[in-house]
Amino acid sequence: MDPVLFTINIGNFSLTVNWYGVILMTATLIAAWLTARELERTGKDPDLLWDVLPILVITGVIGARLWYVTNDILGGNVRYLENPATILYTWEGGLHIFGAFLFGGIAFIIYARKKQLNVWTLLDAVAPYLLIGQALARPANFINQELYGPPTNLPWGISIGANHRIPPWNDLVQFPLETTRFHPTFAYEMLWNFLAGGLIIWISRKYEEKLRPGTLFFCWMILAGVGRVIIETFRPDQPVIPGTGLSYSRLVSLLLALIGGILILARFEKINLPFWKTSPAEETLESEEAQA
């Protein structure tokens, strides 16, 4: 499938619209709409999300690109060091979701604090739709022929063009185009994220009266982390920490899941953390005036 949706030529000016960008923006808007509905369901003002969404998109794209570039450089690739201008070529792909979560999350927390809102309850509303939005965006990887795994004989294996293959699978004699199929790693992550997002939504409804602020977000940390640790076994393209077989992304995912588990235990007072507050006043803090 051609990654270019259409191109507009006006004189010497050319505008190319890629499927990648369209799918990512569509997934973002759907996730935002679902989050807004959740905010409204729980008695919060959905306009809060729409007000901050442009900032989240901008910071998220910047963070996703910077994380991807950093990860690439750590893996020994010097293309961005040799030609720094290519860092700006986001339309060619090359975004990492962890960077989007980090930068977008920081912007979201700053916004919530500025509006005197309870950060934890807002993050709880966002949590499942981060996963669902990410899942909705994964078909963009198929169009760009990226995020695939090693060769497989499974019936759902996909074909990868010669110009998109990494060594050693770019050897077309050993791995012929006509017969070699690859693990659709992006599809595995898409399925995981749909299931994980659905599980968090189910938990939010089933145990709504028992949950403490932040619980759903910590569930996201665990599920997103565990899922990525598993999926990374099908990602031979990821740079690894020198002297180990562990990729940087897998290490971050593992830490994300572990921290999420620890924070859930702390939130329900199963363990004590010196920096963690669990007072009823903190849990019920909400600025109704700021939402009005």
Q: How many strand segments?
A: 2
Mean pLDDT: 88
The order of strands across the largest sheet is 1-2
Number of helices: 11
Subunit organisation of the chains: single chain
Shape: globular
Q: Helicity range of the residues?
A: 55-70%
The structural domain count equals: 1
Order of helices and strands: EEHHHHHHHHHHH
Sheet having the most strands:
2 strands, antiparallel
**Rounded Rg:** 21 Å
Unreliable sequence segments: 279-292
Folded structure, characterized:
The protein is mainly α and 292 residues long. The chain has one domain. The chain has helices at 19-41, 47-74, 79-82, 97-114, 119-137, 139-143, 185-206, 215-231, 248-267, 280-284, 288-291; strands at residues 4-10, 13-18. Strand 1 and strand 2 (13-18) form a beta hairpin. The protein is globular, with a radius of gyration of 21 Å. It starts with a strand and ends with a helix. Residues 279-292 have low confidence and may be disordered.
In short:
By secondary structure, the protein is mainly α. It has helices at residues 19-41, 47-74, 79-82, 97-114, 119-137, 139-143, 185-206, 215-231, 248-267, 280-284, 288-291; strands at residues 4-10, 13-18.
